[in-house]
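Notes from hallway chat w/ T.B., transcribed later so I don't forget. T.B. wanted the structure written out for a chain they're using in a teaching module, and asked if we could keep both sequence and structure tokens in one place. Agreed to drop them here.
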Amino acid sequence: MSATAATPAAATPARPAAAELTATRKAGWGYTLLGVTRLMVGFTFLWAFLDKTFGLGFATPPEGAWLNGGSPTAGFLGGSIEGGNPFAGVWSAFLSINPLTDVLFMLGLLGVGLAFMLGIGTRVAAVSAAAMYTLMYLAAFPMSTNPLYDTHLLLAVAVLAMAGLAAGDHIGLGRQWSRIVKGNRFLI
């Protein structure tokens, strides 16, 4: 085979196969939904922060608002202790250091909510959210509808998947944030 015979084929760029184009379109669609899911989880955390802070009357009545002296953690953890939760000692320890527990919980809600809503710092936010979901799962144990599993565990895994798939890059400021943190991969 001569060099001239190979040149035209080598110079022509290869066209992507139809399967590759379909996979790319599916990935784009899936990543868009991943971004929407990130926004929804972020709003869940941000809403919980706002409701517990101001007592908007949904999960928290106005008189139970954090700004009115209510504790965002005492009711839930206290109910776990009274309900015979096997981790009651841990929840008692958390309640013994209140208001620090309240401050850390509320900062977690706010931080995760804002990071997920903006699409920045999603790795730190995802690890924080997964830890919070896991603690909420353990505080609700034993489950009333399933002996081992509830949606807190599903969400813990889902937020970690969001971090691994760079969910902040989709319908968010993740790409811009990556340039700001300049390769500090944990901060992405």
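Follow-up for T.B.: The chain has a mean pLDDT of 88. Might be a good example for the class.
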